[in-house]
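Can you make up a polypeptide sequence alongside its tokenized fold?
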Amino acid sequence: MPKPNSQTSLVLSFFSLDTYRECGDHHKAIDIWKEKTLPVYEDQLGEHPWTASILQYMADSYKALAIATSEPENVKLAIECSREALGLRIKLLGVHEDTARSHVDLSDLLVIKKAFKEALTELEKALEIQKDVLGEQHESTMDTLAKKIKISIGESETK
């Protein structure tokens, strides 16, 4: 059997670490991603879509913790990780489905923070990309449009 190279090891470590997140141990997942995985990815890969994925998984775990505990610090950390992942995807991928998904993910976090105008702005950016890349009738585009409408209705009701 061939000896795994460093990139193969990175992929295997990612999948084994994602198990913590999938099992709901978000603190453990975040600790490992922050202390062990992210530094290796940044060192071995630099600015890379996989690095953005790790940042987004960290954001997702912080989001789960924020929802479970209502601690504002978790929302703040989720937004920071999500913005960093989005920045990498914009820089590396440009107009791409993953970039649109990052805009939607950030919007979800901004809704938790009750920053509705900023959330709507992120959804607009996502929709623009999704319409261009996926088409107006694609399921992801339609889901994003539905989120935008829901937030718009909710925001107008709170005024």
Summary: The two ends are 64 Å apart (CA to CA). The chain has a mean pLDDT of 88. Residues 72-93 form the longest helix (22 residues).
